[in-house]
Amino acid sequence: MEVISNSSNIKRFRVNALGVNTLEAENTRKKMKKMKAFHIPDLYKSSIIGGIKESRRLQDKLKKDYTPTVLDYGAVKFLISRHFGFCYGVENAVEIAYRTIEENADKRIFLLSEMIHNPDVNADLLSRGVKFIMDTAGNQLIAWSELTSEDVVIVPAFGTTVEIQNRLSEIGINAYQYDTTCPFVEKVWNRATAIGQKDYTIVVHGKPTHEETRATFSHSKENAPTIVVKNMAQTIELAKYITGEKPAEQFYEEFAGQFSEGFNVTKDLQRIGVVNQTTMLASDTQGIADYLKQIMIQQYNIEGSDVTAYFADTRDTLCYATNDNQSATYGLLKENADLAIVAGGYNSSNTSHLVELCEQKLPTYFISSADKILSDNLISHFDLHEKVEKITKDFIPSKEQVTIMLTCGASCPDAVVESILLRLHSFFPEAEPIVV
Ligand code: SF4
């Protein structure tokens, strides 16, 4: 067993002969054991949605049933996804953030950036006096020079970079005291460390500008050359440097901003391993890992277990919530409906993938709150592809019974889903009442 440490010398990991980070596994298990009742402010809860979730949980403790919950009110029927809403990491972050505010009434409290990608939660934290140091793209809103060692800084659920951890440390602020980094994100960092320690270059499948991927990239490059690919199209281009189809010089321009300092495209793509942002689309992530593995097999003319000499044998690093929510969305889409409503922050990665899945089958409206349903025939919704909010007319068809699929991302409060449900139901006066 080997003991290693990261540059900040704060987190220590043990990696056994199989490359399994035992301390990582132990810590994640411990944290998962705490899949307990987190203390979540009442404003995020819903008796209707909470009741549905609890009843499904009791009937299906092993989470094998992905069929939706059917709420049939006659004129309108709702199909509610089996899994949605606040995940472990979000509940953990919300609990820590609100406790931090309570315990530090006399101090200035900052968040490095949005704590999670949900506008309601972020707005409420701002209304309680919390200030954001950066926006989601990493642009500085408050200069580091304005911070002092007396201030409290909360690290968001996505985690943060080694550079920012060090910056806080220089100011005299302990970056780990109010750290809401999700244990499933730390697990990705640990996996990258374990692979990097075995001399693999790390390929991170993630959105290069997303806070989590920026943090993962930063931690990964401490131990190994690292490159980020955002999708299959970029992976195919990367593979052309592995095979020599593209000249090495071109790489540095094509992947500018996505590789670690000193990356040597000729040498550093001979032995690779893939990790992912926790919230990517499972099928994309699998496709990218399979594609790169195949490229290595062809390039080095190898067979069977020999492939591990060139391609690290690991599983994806998607988190349980991403898997549950996407599987439940596939379950939802086995049914028929007239439209789907997906709720969540427009910058939420996991929510956007649920939207992508739904819109392949039926008209899908991505909304951040019930207020976006302007009337019984107008809805303001986010177009993922054009990155703009649009207004669509007559989104509810005129028919005897309208069926609506309803789900949301891992950072969306139950209260938001409830308000959407109630707003839609209110457009059907002849429908049976919702009994709470
Ligand atoms: S979506 Fe997954 S990784 Fe992100 S906070 Fe939730 S559990 Fe953690």
UniProtKB/TrEMBL annotation:
Query: What does the record give as its pathway?
Result: Isoprenoid biosynthesis; dimethylallyl diphosphate biosynthesis; dimethylallyl diphosphate from (2E)-4-hydroxy-3-methylbutenyl diphosphate: step 1/1; Isoprenoid biosynthesis; isopentenyl diphosphate biosynthesis via DXP pathway; isopentenyl diphosphate from 1-deoxy-D-xylulose 5-phosphate: step 6/6
Q: Which UniProt keywords apply?
A: 4Fe-4S, Iron, Iron-sulfur, Metal-binding, Oxidoreductase
Secreted found in the keyword field: no
Q: Which CDD domains match?
A: lytB_ispH
Superkingdom, taxonomy of origin: Bacteria
The record's section on InterPro entries has: LytB/IspH
* Cofactor(s) in the UniProt record: [4Fe-4S] cluster
Gene Ontology molecular function: 4 iron, 4 sulfur cluster binding; 4-hydroxy-3-methylbut-2-enyl diphosphate reductase activity; metal ion binding
A GO BP entry is: dimethylallyl diphosphate biosynthetic process
UniProt protein name:
4-hydroxy-3-methylbut-2-enyl diphosphate reductase
Q: Which organism is it from?
A: Arcicella aurantiaca
